[in-house]
Amino acid sequence: MNRLDLQIKEALFGRGASLVGFADLTQISEDARDSMRFAVSIGVALNPFVVAEIGNGPTAKYYSEYRRVNALLWELAKHCANLISGCGYHAIPKEPTGVGIDTGTQSTVLPHKTVATRAGLGWIGRCALLITREYGSAVRITTVLTDARVQTAAPINDSFCGDCADCVESCPGRAASGKDWNVNSRRNSFFDAFACAKAARGQALARIGIDDTICGICISVCPWTVKYVERNRRKHGSDSN
Question: pLDDT at position 238, please?
Fold first, then answer.
């Protein structure tokens, strides 16, 4: 790991990042990555006690936590880009959510979770979420594109979900087909993003009166997320503050 890599990690972890990885994006089209070869993938874990309460759908606490983490990610991305730029390189911070989504496809040109798999942070689960060993899918992510030559991780190309189908069975929109993801998969081959968005909006309206696409059930039931929640319960007890 070079000096810039260490600077980036130290700065981001010091400001609240939970995960930081470096990706080589040469296998992705230049247009999608703004002609930048490398990327920094930044993750912030959701409060495990808040996540533990969304097994039946979103709560007001979860919506607040979702917004808090997104705001923190955007600040981290901008700080990272400024740090890299200060070292003489180009850097482009990407907002963590809601920007650049094509409503016709429910997708973005370069999903943050794609960059995260290229950075070795996790894989894509059956409900099309990034899953990490540390936090399950209770983590939100963003990206900083750069031409700085960072030391990249080995990408993750295959699912580690095994025969688990907990998210498939729990999805209120029946959006997941149950098929595994791999690096060559197209999302619509295993997941219906439109069914997910419709169900999530219905959940948010019915449970917390919010007109937004936020659900979280698949996050909560993922066994990797459950491990994260249980570790924190053992460590901190039942205190959710």
Answer: 62
pLDDT at 1: 63
The predicted model gives 49-62 an average pLDDT of 97
Quote the CA–CA distance of 57 and 97 in Å, as a whole number. 20
Which residue in the block uniquely carries the two structure tokens 């260490």?
Answer: 6
Sequence-ordered list of residues with C-beta below 8 angstroms from that of 46, at least 6 positions apart, any chain: 65, 66, 69, 135, 138, 139, 140, 219
Alpha carbon distance 125, 6 (integer Å): 30
* Euclidean distance between CA atoms 200 and 210, whole angstroms: 10
Q: Decide: helix, strand or coil at residue 108.
A: coil
Residue extents of the structural domains in the chain = 3-236
* Percent above pLDDT 70 for the chain: 97
**Angle at which helices 60-86 and 193-208 cross, to 10°:** 120
Phi/psi of residue 79, each to 5°? -65, -40
Q: How far apart, in whole angstroms, are the C-alpha atoms of residue 127 and residue 124?
A: 8
Q: Residue 27 has which token pair?
A: 């296998």
User: 27: number of CA atoms within 13 Å, CB side?
Assistant: 11
Q: What is the pLDDT of residues 16-38, one digit of tens each?
A: 999 999 999 999 999 999 999 99
pTM of the shown model: 0.94
The secondary structure element, H or E, covering residue 93 is strand 91-94
How far is 90 from 164, CA to CA, in rounded Å? 41
Beta bridge partners of 107: 102
